[in-house]
Amino acid sequence: MTTPNTSSPTRLITGASSGIGLALTRHWLNHDTPVIAVSRRASSCPALLHLQKQGMPLHCIDTDLTDETQLSTLARQVRQLGMAPEQIINSAGWLHDSDATLKPEKRLEDVTLHGLQQSFALNAFVPVLLARHLIPVMPRDRHTVFASLSARVGSITDNHLGGWYSYRASKAAQNQLLRTLAIETRRRYPNLCVMALHPGTTDTPLSEPFQRNVPTHKLFSPQRSARQLAALIDGADDNDHGRFIAWDGSDIPW
Fold first, then answer.
1. How far apart are CA 43 and CA 197, in angstroms?
2. 204 and 222 in contact (C-beta within 8 Å)?
3. Each residue's pLDDT tens digit in the chain (254 positions)?
4. Are strands 35-39 and 11-14 parallel, antiparallel or unpaired?
């Protein structure tokens, strides 16, 4: 049975330029642990550049996660840095366009092929392709974690309201892919813990258009979400492998 690493593991965080990904980056850097920050424009992100100027152990790598060639390049760049991340956290996700041309569907008539493709590309395909290319660069001889942010609305059992077709379905697909990954890696990477995590509703640009009916006590700041997720990831052990876990540590039905 694996046990948590009590040293300061290197983390690789995707979606690190904003929202929960940026908050997680700041959280672990403030604990003086190395972070590899990955996003489309990580190297030019003002918030990440500010952290680098403070002398924190931060490496920024520009990567379009939906381009598999770039994921392969990302793995090569991590190796070239001489780093082997003990924790990989995928916090990238898609719910709507910035101009609201694509947004969660309220009715069947709102469902489009383009919307489905956008949701599945980032919410379902990226996590498993990231695992394919990045798990081989993780150390094999000690406890490691591959965690990806899912969402409670991806639970088929918990779906009582309907709507949000593409987002729900893409997160459900991610959950199935991660569960399948957990079964395979139990055999091939016995020190690896694979987790799907629900961060709760967090005050980020992703959720901003849909916060009106969220009670104040259930709308978390990115900093709070980061602390809660970091506690789950840093405390993960063999019993957490293959789980779909909410921010408070409770299991979410698939």
1. 27
2. yes
3. 444 444 578 999 999 999 999 999 999 999 989 999 999 999 999 999 999 999 999 999 999 999 999 999 999 999 999 999 999 999 998 786 665 667 888 999 999 999 999 999 999 999 999 999 999 999 999 999 999 999 999 999 999 999 999 999 999 999 999 999 999 999 999 999 999 999 987 766 555 555 566 656 666 788 999 999 999 999 999 999 999 999 999 999 99
4. parallel
pTM: 0.90
Cβ atoms of 202 and 221 closer than 8 Å: yes
Q: Long-range pairs for 117-121 at CB < 8 Å and ≥24 separation?
A: 118/94, 118/166, 119/94, 119/166, 119/167, 119/169, 119/170, 120/166, 120/169, 120/170, 120/173, 121/66, 121/94
**Strand order across the beta sheet in which 35-39 lies:** 58-62, 35-39, 11-14, 87-90, 144-149, 192-198, 243-246
**Which pair of structure tokens corresponds to residue 141?**
């001889």
Q: In sequence order, what are the residues at sequence separation of 6 or more whose Cβ sits closer than 8 angstroms to the Cβ of residue 72?
A: 133
